[in-house]
Amino acid sequence: MRIVLVGPPGAGKGTQAAYLAKNLTIPHISTGDLFRANISQGTPLGVEAKSYMDAGNLVPDSVTIGMAEDRMEQADAAEGFLLDGFPRNLAQAEALDEYLQGKGLKLDAVLDLEVPEDEVVKRIAGRRICRKDSSHVFHVTYNQPETEGVCDACGGELYQREDDREDTVRKRLEVYHAETEPIIDFYRAQGLVATISALGKVAEVTERAMSALGGDA
Description:
The chain is α/β, with parallel strands linked by helices. The chain has helices spanning 13-24, 31-41, 44-54, 61-72, 90-102, 117-125, 166-188, 202-212; strands at residues 2-6, 28-30, 81-84, 109-114, 127-130, 137-139, 158-159, 193-197. The strands form 2 sheets. Strands 2-3-1-4-8 form a 5-stranded parallel sheet, sandwiched between helices. A 3-stranded antiparallel sheet has the order 6-5-7. β5 (127-130) and β6 (137-139) form a beta hairpin. α1 (13-24) crosses α8 (202-212), α2 crosses α4 (61-72) and α3 (44-54) runs antiparallel to α4. The protein is globular, with a radius of gyration of 18 Å.
C-alpha cells in the first residue's frame, strides 16, 4: 500500500506511522528522517538543504521533493510506503502525483488524523523534556514525574522547549491550516481521504486507522 499520513502537530503522526508501517510491512518515510539521512551522508540534496537551514531559510520544495523521490526509489519501498510529513503543501502533493503517475503507480489512501485544536495545544504545551536526556519526556497532565520539574529516570531538570510553548504551538497550527490542510481537499477530490479521530489510546487510534484501510491492527 502507498499511504500518506496527515494531521496537525500533536496528532501523534510519528507514533501512528511506526505502528501502521509495521502492521502493513512497508517502510515509514518521514521528512525528518529524510533530512537527517541526507545531511549526515553528505548527499548533494543534503548539502543543499543544509545550506538553506544554516542560513535560517526554508528548504525549497524542489529539495524536499527530490529527497522523497530518491527514498521512494529504494528497494524496500517497491511494494509500498507510508509518507509522514510529505507532502506538506499543494505543490508537493502535485509533485508526488506526477512522480507516481510517471511510474504507473498511485496512492491507495490518505489518512487524516483529526484532533481538536485545544487538545493539540494541551498535548504539546504540557510536554516537559529532561535537560540531561531528551529521550525522557513527561507531561504535566498525562505523564507527571514523581517530583515536579525533576526527571524520574536520571534526576535531570525538566523544562519546556520553545517549540512547545502555547503561542508557538498556535503559530504552528496556523501554518498547518494555511499550508497543509489544503492537501486534504486535494486528495478528498480523488476519493482517497479517510478521516480518523486521533483521540484516545494509541492502540485505539491504530485500530481505527487499520480498519479504515481494510485491515486488522
